[in-house]
Design goal:
By secondary structure, the protein is α/β, with parallel strands linked by helices. The protein has 6 helices and 4 strands. It is 48% helix and 16% strand. Strands 2-1-3-4 form a 4-stranded parallel β-sheet, sandwiched between helices. The protein has a single domain, classed as Phosphotransferase system, mannose-type IIA component (Rossmann fold, 3-Layer(aba) Sandwich). Helix 1 links the parallel strand 1 and strand 2. The termini are far apart. It is globular, with a radius of gyration of 17 Å.
């Protein structure tokens, strides 16, 4: 099973983890690493490496970070450069987990899983106003 490490500024990682557990139940090989204000990047780096050791069972690991270019992302990217079976994604939302959390056993290639995770996350960002406008613009079904 592909392992997931959630990380980001403040408590976004643990908050997302808690939401995942609330909606989908406890998940194996899923861990959250927060980066609270006042923590150093050295502490974060050590925490990410400890999380990696805790969840990695050899099928690959995907770091899911809150923000492109932030410290959690940069450190995850550094770790990913050390191994070919680690991927990094920036931007997280519950939709990506709703679609992909239970696919971790079925997708054996970590790069393919990363691509599908990103697509699922993008599909979860929608505008209600745009959806309603599109619906109003659709022709009514003819009877």
């Amino acid at each position: 099973m592909i392992a997931l490490i959630l990380t980001g500024h403040g408590r976004i990682a643990s908050g997302t983890y808690e939401a995942i557990v609330q909606v989908f139940g406890e998940q194996a090989q899923l861990i959250a690493v927060d980066f609270p204000e006042g923590n150093s990047t050295a502490v974060l780096d050590a925490s990410l490496r400890q999380a990696l050791a805790a969840v990695d069972q050899g099928a690959g690991v995907v770091f899911v970070c809150d923000l492109l270019g932030g410290s959690p992302f940069r450190l995850a990217a550094t770790i990913a450069q050390e191994r070919s079976d680690i991927e990094v994604v920036a931007g997280l939302n519950l939709q990506m987990f709703a679609e992909m959390l239970f696919e971790r056993d079925e997708v054996s290639d970590v790069a393919e899983f990363r691509q599908r995770l990103v697509a699922a996350g993008k599909s979860g960002v929608v505008s209600l106003a745009e959806r309603l406008a599109r619906k109003r613009a659709e022709p009514a079904d003819a009877l």
